[in-house]
């Protein structure tokens, strides 16, 4: 079972960028723990990050053909991107939205998510642990469908 883990803009700076908000783990650390957990869960993962909206859209299109589920932290595109929402609306398998920080505790412009209109579940404020919890949930949803 293949799942995609997609990350939006500025998450390449994870660990260096505002560590008081996002913690000190890097995206490479997150990827390593996702890979270890995926093996345990019997999932194969494609893990990507981009600062470009179209690349994220293209990966969602690719996932449409191949994946059984998707975890996405759209970062700032969460709050702006109808295009990412539309791409996710064309994806039929389970989607879990992850935010490292508790967006609801932050500025008002972070309280609205276009992606939440499609996501089957949303995790916010659990730090980078949110990715692992999202993968566990995806594994359950995929198993329930099979
Ligand atoms: C984020 C929250 C977003 O509001 C922000 O733009 C990010 C990261 C998070 O993981 O907490 O870049 O998605």
UniProtKB/TrEMBL annotation:
List of catalytic residues: 22, 99
Annotated metabolic or biological route of this protein: Metabolic intermediate biosynthesis; chorismate biosynthesis; chorismate from D-erythrose 4-phosphate and phosphoenolpyruvate: step 3/7
Enzyme Commission number(s) of this protein: 4.2.1.10
InterPro entries: DHquinase_II, DHquinase_II_CS, DHquinase_II_sf
Highest taxon above the source species: Bacteria
SUPFAM superfamilies: Type II 3-dehydroquinate dehydratase
Pfam families cross-referenced by the UniProt entry: DHquinase_II
Keywords: Amino-acid biosynthesis, Aromatic amino acid biosynthesis, Lyase
CDD domains named in the record: DHQase_II (cd00466)
Ligand binding (substrate): 73, 79, 86, 100-101, 110
Chemical reaction(s) catalysed: 3-dehydroquinate = 3-dehydroshikimate + H2O
Coiled-coil residue spans: none
Residues carrying the site annotation Transition state stabilizer: 17
UniProt subunit comment: Homododecamer.
NCBIfam families: aroQ, PRK05395.1-2, PRK05395.1-3, PRK05395.1-4
Family classification: Belongs to the type-II 3-dehydroquinase family.
Function text: Catalyzes a trans-dehydration via an enolate intermediate.
Record protein name field: 3-dehydroquinate dehydratase
């Amino acid at each position: 079972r293949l799942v995609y883990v997609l990350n939006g803009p500025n998450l390449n700076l994870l660990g260096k960028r505002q560590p008081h908000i996002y913690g000190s783990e890097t995206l490479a650390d997150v990827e390593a723990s996702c890979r270890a957990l995926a093996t345990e869960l019997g999932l194969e993962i494609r893990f990507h990050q981009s600062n470009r909206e179209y690349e994220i859209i293209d990966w969602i299109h690719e996932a449409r053909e191949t994946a059984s589920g998707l975890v996405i932290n759209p970062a700032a595109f969460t709050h702006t991107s109808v295009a990412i929402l539309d791409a996710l609306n064309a994806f039929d398998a389970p989607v879990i939205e992850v935010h490292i920080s508790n967006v609801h505790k932050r500025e008002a412009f972070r309280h609205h998510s276009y992606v939440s209109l499609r996501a089957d579940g949303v995790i916010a404020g659990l730090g980078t642990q949110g990715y692992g919890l999202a993968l566990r949930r995806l594994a359950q949803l995929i198993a329930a469908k099979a």
